[in-house]
Amino acid sequence: MMKLTSKEFARRPEQWVDQTVQEQATIFIEGESGRAVMISEEDWNSINDILQVVSMSAMAESLRSEPQSQGNMGTAAESTDKTESLDPT
């Protein structure tokens, strides 16, 4: 992990890109308007893969817990019976 100012980075951008790719280094760059982080494409892809797996796991867990949180809604046949009993004809 390296910390650079934007001016330091601007002096030798190709060197920092090469170092990031070859060493899978993370570079923190601080400029006047804020901070940025530079990582290799390989690291970026790995992070995205992890986020997708975590997101899918959270979605699956949400789907598994959804029927329990809604309580007993009855079966489709029970719902139909109730609807028919309300029909005035």
UniProtKB/TrEMBL annotation:
Family statement drawn from the similarity comment of this UniProt entry: Belongs to the phD/YefM antitoxin family.
Phylogenetic placement of the source organism: Bacteria, Pseudomonadati, Pseudomonadota, Gammaproteobacteria, Oceanospirillales
SUPFAM superfamilies in the cross-refs: YefM-like
Regions of compositional bias (Basic and acidic residues) in chain numbering: 79-89
UniProt xrefs under Gene3D superfamilies: YefM-like domain (3.40.1620.10)
Protein's name according to its UniProt entry: Antitoxin
InterPro entries given in the database record: YefM-like_sf
Top-level taxon in the UniProt lineage: Bacteria
Region (Disordered): 61-89
